[in-house]
């Protein structure tokens, strides 16, 4: 690797404020804030959403029961097709 071209990689504490959980992982993000966790001091970065609070990962995602355009068309005109068959 070439010297002096790579960003500083260090261990950072990310705080998911929605789920009130911490992730301690390596990152190149820069911050002036610090936090002490388990006797160690880490750079601190608050985040709004992580895998602990996002509905897709937690299984609490709401699915809408919306049909597509074809189903809507069929529902709208299904009586028309049955009326044609009866008149023949």
From TrEMBL:
<dbReference type="GO" id="GO:0005840">
    <property type="term" value="C:ribosome"/>
</dbReference>
<comment type="similarity">
    <text>Belongs to the bacterial ribosomal protein bL31 family. Type B subfamily.</text>
</comment>
<dbReference type="GO" id="GO:0003735">
    <property type="term" value="F:structural constituent of ribosome"/>
</dbReference>
<dbReference type="GO" id="GO:0006412">
    <property type="term" value="P:translation"/>
</dbReference>
<dbReference type="InterPro" id="IPR042105">
    <property type="entry name" value="Ribosomal_bL31_sf"/>
</dbReference>
<protein>
    <recommendedName>
        <fullName>Large ribosomal subunit protein bL31B</fullName>
    </recommendedName>
</protein>
<dbReference type="GO" id="GO:1990904">
    <property type="term" value="C:ribonucleoprotein complex"/>
</dbReference>
<dbReference type="InterPro" id="IPR002150">
    <property type="entry name" value="Ribosomal_bL31"/>
</dbReference>
<keyword id="KW-0687">Ribonucleoprotein</keyword>
<comment type="subunit">
    <text>Part of the 50S ribosomal subunit.</text>
</comment>
<dbReference type="InterPro" id="IPR034704">
    <property type="entry name" value="Ribosomal_bL28/bL31-like_sf"/>
</dbReference>
<dbReference type="Pfam" id="PF01197">
    <property type="entry name" value="Ribosomal_L31"/>
</dbReference>
<dbReference type="InterPro" id="IPR027493">
    <property type="entry name" value="Ribosomal_bL31_B"/>
</dbReference>
<keyword id="KW-0689">Ribosomal protein</keyword>
């Amino acid at each position: 690797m070439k010297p002096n071209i790579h960003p500083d990689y260090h261990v950072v504490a990310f705080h998911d404020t929605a789920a009130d959980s911490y992730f301690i992982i390596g990152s190149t993000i820069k911050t002036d804030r610090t936090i002490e966790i388990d006797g160690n001091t880490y750079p601190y970065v608050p985040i709004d959403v992580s895998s602990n609070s996002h509905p897709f990962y937690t299984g609490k995602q709401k699915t809408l029961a919306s049909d597509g355009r074809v189903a809507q068309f069929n529902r709208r005109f299904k009586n028309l097709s049955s009326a044609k068959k009866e008149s023949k």
